[in-house]
Amino acid sequence: MTKKIINLLSSAAVVFAAGAVLSPSRADAKLRVVASIETLADLAREVGGGRIDIEALSRGYQDPHFVQAKPSLVLTLNRADALLYVGLDLEVGWLPPLVQQSRNSKIQTGQAGNIDCSSAITVRDIPNIPADQLRAMGDVHPMGNPHYWIPPDNALAIVRMLAKRFTALDPAGGPEFEKRAVDFAARLRKKVEEWNKRAAPLRGEKLVTYHKSWSYVATWLGLVEVGYIEPKPGIPPTANHTAQLIQLMKQQGVKLIVLENFYPNSLANIIGRETGARVLSLPSDVGASTAIHTYSDLIDAIVSALCAAK
Ligand SMILES: [Zn+2]
């Protein structure tokens, strides 16, 4: 055997060995799953259990519209077998460039490892104005409302969809993914009974929110949205809009203002003082505070805070 051929063979062996180490299709390898937000990571953990390694790209105390695109996230994405994201343009400002820079074909749009979780739910607030036109106006919800992951029906729909998508990526794990999704549904059913019972007195309660991000929650709990501190999703408040909102709140007797805990609450507090409304700074994602480790913790915290404000 010539030296050249030996060299060729040994480099092929190195490539093969590297491939074996990196390939997710090895029987004992875990599926490497990356999620854009912590709630999706937690739902993925519910489905994947010990068969997946899961990492979130953002923290629950950050505004998911505006996450800093750190270079380390490119490396995380480069190694991923699957990427879960909220979609509907929620992460459009930071995630697509990272996915592109990752040079990972498995997670590019259209691939089995590219999982848009909005495909699992019924999207609300779909505008009848073309998305490009809305984007140009600064509206950050041009595809419909992307803040859908809190109501239990939607969490369950995401979990069921993930069981199917993970099975496509790891067929041997299929029965386990399905079983875990069924177990999650059973546990969730009990929690939903408790949440609905606790939140029953909130039905019909009028509220104003900072961002148009509580609409799915309002529908679930029977709250009535009267207005938003932002004139349009992502557009900063103006003096004129704030004055009109205060007038509307007084007319309608709105006694509750809700905002995510990453928004500044100074303006909400001013509006609260003017109208006598209580300002509630709520978690909206797993990891929004140190006590919120799971999806269930998140909903417990939201329901408890809303009930305490009543
Ligand atoms: Zn939004």
Provide structural commentary.
This protein starts with a helix and ends with a helix. It is globular and about 60 Å long. The strands form two sheets. It has a four-stranded parallel β-sheet, covered by helices on one side. It has two domains: 166 residues, Nitrogenase molybdenum iron protein domain (Rossmann fold); 112 residues, Nitrogenase molybdenum iron protein domain (Rossmann fold), CATH 3.40.50.1980. The chain is α/β, with parallel strands linked by helices and 310 residues long. Helix content is 46%, strand content 12%. The structure holds zinc ion (ZN). Zinc ion (ZN) binds next to loops. Zinc ion binds next to loops.
Compact description:
By secondary structure, this protein is of the alpha/beta class. Helix content is 46%, strand content 12%.
